[in-house]
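Convert to structure. Protein one:
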Amino acid sequence: MEYAIALANGDGVPRDEVMAARVFRRAASRGNAIAQNRLARLYATGRGVARNLVEAAAWHLVASGQGLPDTWLDGAVKDLAKTDRARAEQLAAERAGAL
């Protein structure tokens, strides 16, 4: 996590948001709520990954389910279409079930 944050911020290492997203994704899929939250923020802003609000919402739901709420992300994904929200909820359920 510290390495991914350093990569995302360029703190002590050259900034590499693509690599940061990869490291966050690996930790997120292993159940790290902070990584899930950071990955959701990257998807919401399109930093290091293609902007994808469905993915942002899905990872945000998983992190929130582990007790890590984020009001900024709540606002970023609040206007998703019903079909997109349903897809995000499905992805979140699958990911949470795999943890």
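Protein two, convert as well:
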Amino acid sequence: MPATSTRERRAVREGRRQQILRCAAQLFASRGFHGVSVDDLGAAAGVTGPALYRHFRSKDDILSELLVSASERLLDGGRTRVDGALGPEQALDALIEFHVAFALDEPDVITVQQRELSSLPPRARRTVRALQHDYVLIWAHVVERITGCGTERAIAAAHAGFGLMNSTPHSARLPGDAMSALLREMAGAALRAAPGSAPAR
């Protein structure tokens, strides 16, 4: 039926878009955004370079969708974990499990997110920063409730926790389950250790 045919075409198109994004993440992570051409992306995705423009307006558009989408998924996932938790302790464990799984499943995206924010067009950069800010606040509010520390310190603790969990593209030397368990244990200990006040100087 025509409706089924339309759905199938849309599914094929979306599948190709996701394939291009996966290839872009791998290439941008290994060579840097400015070291990858449209032809490189097309070759990796199995299409001609010009054919990419059927799916994305430009290489900048590919980077924008890659990083905005990643930030949206993190924020949505973080909100879902906190909303489904029975209390702050359970919320923190759920957040850590979620973020560690994302970092291990998508190390190329993590690498690109860390290195290429400045390469984004201004509008996309503002969007990513706003999404990241909201994601950090989710974590900070949970840490604040557990430790009693102030918001500023909880935000700093959250960033430190991300640094630990996001190190996986460079440090993952154990099998997946073992690395996941190690990161969850270390992140949980680090975030729960955020003191209620800074030491006197």
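Residues 28 and 112 are 6 Å apart (CA to CA). The chain has two domains: 1-56, 59-201.
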